[in-house]
Amino acid sequence: MRIWSSQQNTRHVGGLINFRLERQAVVKKIQIVTIGGGSGQFVLLSGLRPSRRFSITSVVSMVDSGGSTGRLRGEFGVLPPGDLLKCILALSPHQELARSILLKRFTGDRRLRGHNAGNMLLTMLSRYTGSFTSGVQALGEILDVQGRIFPVTTDKATLVAELTDGTRIYGEQAIDVPETGHREKIRSVFLVPHHANQVKVYPPVLTAIDKAEMIILGPGDLFTSILPNLIVPGVTEALQATRAPIYYVLNLMTKYAETHRFKARDFVIEMEKVLARRLDGIIYNTAVPDANFMQAYAQQGAQLVKVDRADGWWEDRELVSADLLDTSGGVVRHDARKLAAAIESLGIDLAAAPAAKG
Length: 358
Hints:
The chain is α/β, with parallel strands linked by helices. 38% of the residues lie in helices and 17% in strands.
């Protein structure tokens, strides 16, 4: 396993990298694999796409069961298209135009009402080609996607969460949005296959991890966006064997019913418990939203995730810190360009030390 560190074991990224200057020096692209799902992957990939330093492969969770995605999954028996659609849009140079068209929801026809155009198109392409992955590739071709997007599995499965009191909750949406005001903590998550003895990893995912030079986990909901990728048999084994450094993008806020009252170290502990190995570095935000945001999130049971560097628990871990905050849309999320700049700084070090691998 490759170990990355700095002199003080802490890196601070103060501002955006001048990508124009960097592009002149880049010769060989770094093979980066991102693993996650939901809106977190959209933000991450939107930031990474303009950089010419990386050749991007995105591995995406396949357990989304809500909204248009859930309806298509139930009506047509297809794999959930929603998270993959977000990644396709993120890696397209036509992102803004494509989003305005493909995320538009139908309001007229009764059967179509509530679906968005992109999910319907991806479903139809998959059915016409006879393969979900071929449908993804076809839509990516239409939108000139700059990178590769793989479902972590092509097997249909349901995500199940087991709580500390032994209760089990079935389905990503039910786990994500609790039905009652109080719920026990999540002890673990696992997958229940629909038509086989176990869920199998999509083979190109293992090849991508094996060839990766950098791996990014997150950002996204811990139990419903990130861990569902890692619990697919074969994925953790590949991540244990990789020589690429693995970085985890820490959440900005806790989430009620998933990571309620989590400290920063709790996210890392849960991640490493499933990985059965240590992470090589943690990327985290240092900025604090204004009081109005904090109050609004507190009413939802959410708290800001802070890393206390004085805590000795962190002392032998590489910490990559930066202002990664974006509140421009009225919600707290990672800023795509700031996050990409932090990862770019790691890529510069990787390119400067090619002998570290192997």
